[in-house]
Amino acid sequence: MQAGSTRRQDVARGLAGLAGFSATALLVVPKGLSLFACLLLAATLAALPDAWRGARHVPRALYALLLSALGVIAVVAVSMWRVDAPWSALDNPSRVLLLPWCAWLAWVTRMRVSGLWYGALVGLLVAFAISIAQVSLGVERAGSDANPIVFANAVLTLLVIAVFCRPSTTGALLLVLAAAILVANVAVILSGSRGVLPGLGLVVLVLLIGTAKRHRWRRLGGAIGVLSLLFVALWMVPWLSTQFRLDELHGDVAGFATGAVDKPISARMALWSVAWDAFRESPLTGAGIDTFAARIDASTYCLDAQRHFCGLGHAHNDIAQWGATMGLMGLVALAALYLVPLWVAAGQIRHTHPDQPVGPAWASGVLVVTYLVSGITQSMFAHALSASAFFVLGGLLLGSALSSGRNVDRG
Description:
Layout: H1 2-25, H2 33-51, H3 60-83, H4 91-94, H5 98-109, H6 114-136, H7 148-164, H8 171-191, H9 197-209, H10 216-236, H11 238-243, H12 249-257, H13 264-281, H14 292-297, H15 318-351, H16 360-374, H17 384-404
Helix pairs in contact: 1-2, 1-6, 2-5, 3-5, 3-15, 5-17, 6-7, 6-8, 7-8, 7-9, 7-16, 7-17, 9-10, 9-16, 12-13, 13-15, 15-16, 15-17, 16-17
């Protein structure tokens, strides 16, 4: 009986590791998470027979993740009921259940993050190859089968795992890390996404500063110097400035004053004004989920003529999107979506004191913060790929952190 249980646990751990590898390796491939879904189900079925007979108590953090996920779905369901929205409006929000599910699976199987790390390296190479291939075929901005912004955010997610889940630093590993950063930057540059740049800078900043107290100020100065040089390069190198459309910023912002809202920044400013009007009309519950596109069509920007702006469907900002459609209830749900995983990650980081910011707790924490930063210019949970990546990879990282950290066995 004991031998059979051990074999089942080994099978579950192996399937969970393969699921994590496939999730990162195939993240930017069209329908790449389909294999992960199959492996997730198989690993769960293999882990269930022994899960409830184990001596370990389920950590309170897993219950917190589950309750926050159920709370988000409850808020979305109420909003759907108010405006009689179709069931498809629950598609992306319902993926939040993957967060506690993946966290539980990684915790109960004691899944190693090495699978995620190797998969992230493969995924970055795949993203690099896709971006090179698309640009060589004449595509202006690389994006795989998603839009370039979503593609760039997926690349940033893979880079977070490649940087913060790496093994102990060696000479050879430094070369691998440098190569990962290089191919990630190439893919982001070819995507032409500006919104991902602050998150990319954050990853570099945390990597260079580290956590050791020795020479911290010197490292901070060096990190700021590196980021400053990169910023200057974006403005001074003509090709980079054109690729990221930095030469259009002034005209883009100025165009908003004259009603020209078909450029990226002016469109975002107009979207945020539409979102603010919707929030003011119903601050508690918002206009209702799946209604923002209709609010755009009814705005003054679309009364006289149809334009590209009128085809947009979300506010390109997490706070604006959730506040406009679900009001204060939505903002509370959004805060739980970010802050509960961040709280769990911070709790595990406090239990460890590494000289470098390495490990699943650090990776999950940085992942949440990069999504927060990216959410300023993009509705991160309005896209299936961005939402799934956050819930799946965030859950696996948090579960691994809970399994490897101290006080794991406390209920």
